[in-house]
């Protein structure tokens, strides 16, 4: 199906199954909302709510992940990325982090290759 003619669920499945990172984790509407926040805590609270973390009681591990997400968004903002570019960067970083932490064994080379592959797709 053409993405414009798919339901939101079908679109999400197509994006997840492919290597398309744009709008995979943060939609255009969510990006616009994030851009309106003035304080880092507001952005982090939004990210916690979006990805199922408890903002008030973050573990050290979850806090590090939320910081990774926040600083990814800050990097994009400081480098004048538009909403589409920011969404793609965010999803690339999120996917690479997932890949890097999926095993406790050394998967550095595989993770770097995956990162390069995703960057090449965008």
Would you write up a description of this structure?
With 122 residues, the chain is an all-alpha fold. The protein contains six helices and no strands. The longest helix is centred in the middle third of the chain and has 19 residues, at 60-78. The mean pLDDT is 85.
Give structural attributes.
globular; 122 residues; single chain; 67% helix; mainly alpha
The pLDDT mean sits at 85
Oligomer: single chain
Beta-strand residue percentage: under 5%
Terminal Cα separation, in Å? 22 Å
Shape: globular
Number of helices: 6
Order of helices and strands: HHHHHH
Unreliable sequence segments: none
Helix content: 55-70%
Radius of gyration: 15 Å
Largest beta sheet, briefly? none
Which structural class should the secondary elements be placed in? mainly alpha
The beta-strand count equals: 0
Summarize it.
This protein has 122 residues and is mainly α. It is built from six helices and no strands.
Outline the fold blueprint.
Blueprint: H1 8-17, H2 28-36, H3 40-51, H4 60-78, H5 83-100, H6 108-121
Helix pairs in contact: 3-4, 4-5, 5-6
């Amino acid at each position: 199906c053409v993405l414009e003619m798919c339901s939101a669920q079908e679109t999400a499945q197509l994006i997840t199954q492919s290597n398309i990172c744009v709008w995979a984790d943060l939609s255009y509407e969510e990006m616009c909302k994030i851009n309106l926040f003035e304080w880092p805590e507001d952005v982090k609270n939004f990210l916690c709510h979006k990805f199922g973390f408890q903002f008030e009681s973050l573990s050290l591990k979850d806090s590090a992940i939320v910081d990774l997400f926040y600083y990814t968004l800050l990097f994009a903002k400081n480098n004048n990325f538009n909403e589409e570019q920011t969404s793609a960067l965010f999803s690339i970083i999120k996917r690479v982090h997932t890949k890097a932490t999926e095993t406790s064994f050394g998967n550095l080379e595989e993770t770097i290759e995956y990162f390069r592959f995703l960057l090449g797709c965008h």
